Amino acid sequence: MTSLLQVENLSLVYGADQVVRDLSFTIGRGESFGLVGESGSGKSSIANVIIGDLPKIATARGSIRYDGMDLLSASREQLRALRGRRIGFVQQDPGASLNPTMRIGRQLVEALEHGGAPVRGRSERAAEMLSRVGFDNPGAIMARYPHQISGGQQQRVMIAMALLPQPDLILLDEPTSGLDVTVEAAVIKLIAELRARFGTSLLFISHNLNLVAKACDRVGVLYAGDLVEEALAGSVFENPRHPYTQGLVKCLPGQSTILQPIRGHVPSPHERGPGCLFASRCGHHLASSCDAPFEAMALNQSHRVRCARLGDVPIFASQIGAPEVRAIDGPTAITIRGLRKSYPTSGGDHFVANDDIDLEIRQGEILGLVGESGSGKSTLAKIIAGFDVATSGTILIGDTDIAKLPVRKRSRLLLRQVQMVFQNPDSTLNPTHTIGWALGRAVRKLETEPSRRTDLAGRVRELLGLVALLPSLGGRKPKALSGGQRQRVAIARALAAQPRLLLADECVSALDVSVQAAIIELLQDVRARTGTAILFISHDLPLVRQISDRIVVLFRGKPMEVGSAAQVYSLPLHPYTEALLSADTHRPAEMKNAATDGLSNSLGGCPYAQRCGRAIGEICWTQAPPYQTVADGHQIYCHIPVHELLHLQKAEPALTSGIAKSLPRPGQTSEVPQWSST
After folding, report:
1. Which one is predicted more confidently, 54 or 355?
2. pLDDT tens-digit series, residues 439-494
3. Residue 582 in contact with residue 590, Cβ under 8 Å?
4. CA-based end-to-end distance of the chain
């Protein structure tokens, strides 16, 4: 395989700080190369230096050759001719990359203009690409401005924009971090098709190790600017040899009954010496061998490891296993009955975000809530927290119904009962005040015991200790903390009220696997010590399996399947749950975002009917299914009897949603048998 990109002895310095040290790797034509590592490892800086987008204080030395051209010595005009046309770039923050003054369609067409595409058919090509990245209404999306679509939709637009000119090389910097597993699977499949058809090469930067293992041919593991291991994707994660790579794999859900975070932190540039930069966190560190410069060692032609004590590091032994099954039998923390939330739309119709939800969460229980974007997960959390109100139904905290009680009308006692941890702590922590001030304010506002409020400094130290942060961090401002530390502060602030229920809405989705494992460990520890119930919302299915006692699978506001984590994952009976798990594993039978025209809602049928690969005819579109009991605590919302679903899964596992398009709609004749729900 001939090389398209060759990086040799690259060093990158920001001012006086070296962030990348003597880095070398190659990417062949049509090859996908993954780059993984924690925040602060220099992954995004490498993408920026390749594209020629570095701040003035940055200096790059070494060589980056793209198709024979040295990018470090190329002129601005040469780089401008490459960007977008031959080198595509999908950045981590799409909101900062899309022009807020231009409609989506115009920006996509502009990408084709820059790529030299023929004038005729540009809009049609843009709409087709939007369809291929998961949009079922490309025309409507093209007419909108960036602020009128969600963050996940913006990310898909950026991916479509990078793919449109059919470049030779695409740099993907955390391209799927805000996407659902179904959309993620569709995007990865699309990129694979593009590679196969046009020979496109990829530099895939991500903290999602499972995704990189499936999407890439080779993987480089970056730590503090050093490439510590490089090998074929299967070898890196199945047979990791560097202690850091082994630590990353141990952080993955499903690798053991408990997550094992890497202790310590990535050293800042001024803390880095000439030897192994992982030494302070490594259990195999030996000063005489590790603290002096050394070269990487080649295990074979495709596997290189930078470790001075490689011969003394034990071979990695996988400990794959499911979490222990926990029986939660405490008192009820919150009871939800018949909850419905609808919003008026143009034409006098209503959009239903939550549809007749019945749930109970017990003290000390972690309830996982999964589903695609738009399934109503965050809407449910906002109603419980008081940021929105229900259209009908009840939410009982004790004897008080809070379903229609907005947060501004809740008493201090009720405010203490429910607290929320948001996805992005940067948007909830005041950047002008210290961490200690933020926690102290929460104590003053929410503590009801005067004796607790008098010793404010002691209470702040107690809260910092509860989330495993040093008391000295209380004097720092948010910008002086890492992303994981800021998220711990957000959790500490929520715990200041000693809540009955903690709402965790995608609170670890943007974190590295090691930090994510530490936060999950923290939440489980908090639950065990305080008895706080937790509603854990995430699109990361293995992570939800790891942390949850029970799981609710939501689709268009309706629970499709409810059961213990073990029941839902070992026996996913509802076709939607089955398709979600299929998409998560990226098996050939992935579920796609099919068009939804609202027919099932208008006729009172199953909301999933239009996308269901197992739909059995008119009954699915016209009659609401019953809840069937599979086992104690395990229910599904489906017309097909349990024994028939088991038979269908064995015969045709994980059918795609596209099959539903071939089934007759209401009013058409059907030869498909109609199962009884009894």
Report:
1. 355
2. 999 988 887 665 555 688 888 998 998 887 888 889 999 888 877 788 889 889 99
3. yes
4. 60
Tokens (6 digits) for 536:
């854990």
Please give the structure tokens belonging to residue 485.
Answer: 């530390």
Instruction: Report CA Rg, the chain.
Output: 26
Residue 7 and residue 50: Cα distance in Å, rounded?
9
268 and 191 Cβ atoms separated by less than 8 Å: no
Taking the C-alpha atoms of residue 509 and residue 419, their distance in angstroms, rounded to an integer, is 19
Domains of the chain in start order, with CATH, are: 237-321 (no CATH), 332-555 (3.40.50.300), 571-662 (no CATH)
Contact between 3 and 63 (Cβ < 8 Å): no
State the greatest distance between any 2 C-alpha atoms of the chain, in Å, as a whole number.
80
Take residue 328 and report the two structure tokens written for it.
């939660």
DSSP-derived secondary structure letter, 517? H
pLDDT at position 611 is: 87
Three-state secondary-structure class, residue 131: helix
Beta strands in 195-270 (DSSP E): 201-205, 218-223, 226-232
**Structure letter (DSSP) for residue 83:** B
Report which of 326, 212, 218, 246 is spatially closest to residue 564, judged by C-alpha positions. 326
> Is residue 277 within 8 Å of 221, Cβ to Cβ?
no
Helix 435-446 and helix 456-466, axial crossing angle in degrees, nearest 10: 110
Q: What is the DSSP string of 311-375?
A: GGSPPP-----PPPP------EEEEEEEEEEEEE-TTS-EEEEEEEEEEEEETT-EEEEE--TTS
DSSP state of 274: S
Residue 553 contacts residue 530 (beta carbons within 8 Å): no
Q: What integer is the mean pLDDT of 394-419?
A: 93
Closest CA to 488 of 459, 448, 517: 517
Residue 564 is classified by DSSP as E
DSSP state of 263: P
| pTM > 0.70: yes or no | yes
577 and 328 Cβ atoms separated by less than 8 Å: no
* 512 touches 480 (CB < 8 A): no
Going across the sheet that includes 366-370, the strands are 418-421, 501-505, 533-537, 366-370, 550-555, 558-564, 634-637, 627-631
pLDDT band at 588 (very low <50, low <70, confident <90, very high): very low
Q: Cα–Cα distances in Å, from 202 out to 170, 205, 229, 380?
A: 5, 9, 19, 38
Kindly report each contact of residues 289-292 with a partner whose C-beta sits within 8 Å and lies 24 or more positions away, as own/partner.
Answer: none
CB 259 within 8 A of CB 520: yes
Q: Residue 385 is encoded by which pair of tokens?
A: 């927290």
